[in-house]
Amino acid sequence: MSGTFEESLQKLKQLFPDAKEQSLIVALKLSNVQIEKASNIYLEQKEGRINKNKSFLHLKQPKLDSFIKKKQAENENSEKIDSGSSKKRKFDELNEAAVNKQNNSSNKKLLNLQEVLKWPLKSLTVKKRTQTQTLYLYRQEDISARTPCMLIHNVLPKELANSLLRIMLKESETFTRNQGFLFGNLVTSPHTSQYYISNEMKTRSSNNARYFPPEMEQAKTIIMNIVNEQRKERKIYEYEVQGDWSPNIAAVNCYANSKEAVNWHSDRLTHLGPLPIIGSLSLGVPRQFRLRRFGNGESNSTNATQKTSPSTIYSIPLEHNSLIIMWPPCQELWKHEVCPQNSIDKHPIAGFKRINITFRQFRDEYGSEMTPICHHGELCMLKPVFNGRNVGRYFYSCNAGGPEGKCDFFEWLNIDKRKEEVEKLRMLETKDK
Ligand SMILES: O=C(O)CCC(=O)C(=O)O
Ligand SMILES: [Fe+2]
Fold it and tell me: Which residues does the UniProt record annotate as the domain GRF-type (predicted)?
């Protein structure tokens, strides 16, 4: 039994202390040693959601061996036919990609670092999708009826918007393209970006972030007030930020021309925590901002999601000085992108460039000190469960992948426990003062 298998088995045992070891071993084998998948297989069996004849819990060893072989062959086949099946998750795709990489060097072309380092990993394989239709949404009432977003035009005073654009165009000359290795392949982001932190965060150390210039602080305050005013009328989820939303960091993106883009992703939750609000300001050339639901994710959320389907792409033109607010659970149930375009209109200040500033709230309780580190020493990523019985839960896993490009670290986020830990830390801090 390999070390990794043994470690994974120990993890599974911790998750299911009452389970028979044999059942966990089978689940682990069927899942190709993927803990998340193995947990689901085990639970499905245990809860009898699998037809009794197909269940393995009652089988004796020889029959069990042939059951495993048969199942593994079935799984391989069904994954070939339906690579976009609802059972497949981001979590699985990471491992799938590692395997595919060995067989298919043309995957290199599809790699995109934005999806990997800054944003959660997207599948590296070409997936069969059901046919999609694109619906262009212009009016606020249509946008909020169909997506978890809100669009506000002319959000900043004209002069402020123009001067912020000029400042950011200058700053963007030194923005960088994220670059790194994924499974041995060099991947590069299709636009440049830079992180900024607001002045009240100055006491916190951060690697190579810049500080909000005064115009960005002003924009932040205006956007923060709009969001907080809107929140008075909105449902506040239990685990989202309580009290006022107070953005303190921003990712600034620069799209130099019509072909620069950001691929389908949802924003990283690791330091924002569950159900974040993201206020996204557009400056310069108008571009199409596109949204789609996660494939087959069951909805437990807004009215908007009930009227939508993963096969529809909603495209919203983002004009200069417009704000799109991504409300929760946009990052949990939806993906967004800015796709390359064939033509764009020249902007009087920006030419063919677009600047985008996404204001976000970094939450102390999701700071690096609170984030688990995997067995290879990498800071883990916080991810939501997209579908199945565990929707609504969050877990930590590793995206970097360790030395072999594969890491099976897995830990559920216990939100209530996290709250208690943070309370204790705060009490200690106030005592010290
Ligand atoms: O440019 C945009 O409008 C979107 C940028 C984005 O999705 C991000 O920074 O995460
Ligand atoms: Fe994003």
Answer: 374-416
